[in-house]
Hints:
Blueprint: H1 2-40, H2 43-49, H3 65-69, H4 76-90, H5 92-99, H6 101-106, H7 113-145, H8 155-179, H9 186-207, H10 214-217, H11 227-232, H12 237-261
Amino acid sequence: xxxxxxxxxxxxxxxxxxxxxxxxxxxxxxxxxxxxxxxxxxxxxxxxxxxxxxxxxxxxxxxxxxxxxxxxxxxxxxxxxxxxxxxxxxxxxxxxxxxxxxxxxxxxxxxxxxxxxxxxxxxxxxxxxxxxxxxxxxxxxxxxxxxxxxxxxxxxxxxxxxxxxxxxxxxxxxxxxxxxxxxxxxxxxxxxxxxxxxxxxxxxxxxxxxxxxxxxxxxxxxxxxxxxxxxxxxxxxxxxxxxxxxxxxxxxxxxxxxxxxxxx
Length: 264
């Protein structure tokens, strides 16, 4: 197992470091922007410019320095970067089948589920690492650039943001792992889950403007992570994290079941 995990990390270390660098730079730049905006006293004006249907997700982030500096954890682009990277990492079993590596591994007396466990470990530990890097970059940016009188974001809020983003990425990563149980090409597993993820994000966004879509948006993991609600203190964190955890466990169980039964 150690050699399998080591091999996987060796293959993804460069994109992992590149994404970590991008996210860190964004966090620091966000603190610089928030410092400039708060220095000009425009935060309230920014909030008033946000359309009503976006108040749920962005409104409270634009009301304070602390809110602005947490925006990096629930900005749509950042969320999708982390989610898509988790999907890529978790689709490795399909890549092993495509490359024929699975034949070499299973020629030894190794249980099949090791390949799934390996990919779960790589996916979860890599995304945890990204959250740690984002938190560290936020702290560095605040220490370096925050105005003297600015109120920093509460550590509890930052941890809740990171926890929600982590669980959303794990749910899609587990879905990609399950898809790998059927796919024989890595691109197919990634494509199906990535397109589904984008569709589910748009569905949740639509629900903020059109109430009839809300009943369907509950099927989207993104429905259980609204940064504005966390900042406002109206988020049901235990329910949201439990739901995302249940989705992750369900897809992981499907992955173990399917991989143990499929013809390799």
